[in-house]
Write a structure and sequence with these properties.
Length: about 140
């Protein structure tokens, strides 16, 4: 079907974050609460703030990672297009890398300016993943 991809392009989470979120009053208010810099559509935005990890991580570390908030910042296709990234970032945040580790250095950079660190606790599935990951980390450090 010709043109089908074009209809959904502006609803794609990456496109929405970079080109449409700045026009959404809910996204503007949420961004102000989270100290997020929303890209101004039409301008060339580069660096980590143009990627999805920036808004996703900020929602997670502040405990504001709700469907309504993802929808405000990433648009209506966030769940089908960004769910894997969201789950991966949640696990990274919940692992809380120790100071001095490369992951901690990256976290500090990505989280600079965030209002508070208050992620929601893990659900049962995330707890199992965290347990397996910590077990592997412990075995590798021995």
């Amino acid at each position: 079907m010709p043109g089908r991809a074009g209809r959904n392009r502006n609803r794609d989470p990456f496109y929405y974050w970079n080109n449409a979120a700045h026009t959404n009053p809910e996204a503007q208010q949420l961004a102000a609460e989270l100290a997020l810099e929303i890209p101004a559509g039409g301008q060339l935005t580069t660096g980590f703030k143009s990627g999805l990890m920036y808004p996703i991580r900020r929602l997670i570390i502040t405990g504001k990672d709700t469907p309504a908030n993802y929808n405000a910042l990433l648009g209506p296709l966030w769940e089908s297009k960004a769910a894997d990234t969201i789950q991966r970032v949640r696990i990274e945040v919940l692992l809380c890398p120790p100071p001095g580790s490369p992951a901690h250095t990256v976290s500090e950079y990505l989280d600079a300016g965030a209002p508070r660190w208050a992620p929601r606790g893990p659900n049962a599935e995330e707890e199992a993943t965290l347990s397996r990951t910590r077990d592997m980390q412990q075995r590798l450090n021995m």
